[in-house]
Amino acid sequence: MKLSTALAIAAFTGVAPAAPTGEHSVEDYFIGADKRDKTVEDYFIGADKRDKTVEDYFIGADKRDKTVEDYFIGADKRDKTVEDYFIGADKRDKTVEDYFIGADKRDKTVEDYFIGADKRDKTVEDYFIGADKV
Question: Which key words are in the record (predicted)?
Fold first, then answer.
């Protein structure tokens, strides 16, 4: 039985037919993992023959000493968390929250910058409806 036929049967009936040869299931054949000593999960993104988990390979994190989460947005080789890199906050002494609306390099909170309240002696709430200079 061809792989495509086996998968079609499994998809239609919900029952996996017997594997073509050996001790493998249709699940093993799903992405060509047959005749190999790996699970289908390992082969899902080409992680076979490597000493990493599939999760590590999900975004090319193999052969690096970082977690997949760190690589999600290119945070590898930097001493920051992924959260810090989410909006380009790397190499700055601010939190991501501070950078969310361009509050970096200012002595204000993000809340203060939300509606342009910086450099004024008012709260963001005061500026919400144009209360500045009143």
Answer: Signal
Cα 62 from chain centroid (whole Å):
14
Q: Which domain holds residue 36?
A: 3-63
The H-assigned helical ranges of 14-81 are 26-29, 40-43, 54-57, 68-71
Residue pointed to by tokens 């909170």: 109
- Give residue-wise pLDDT tens across range 56-111: 444 444 444 555 454 444 444 445 554 544 444 444 455 545 444 444 445 555 45
Structure tokens at 57: 């390979």
Are 59 and 74 members of one domain? no
Last residue of a domain, one of 39, 63, 87: 63
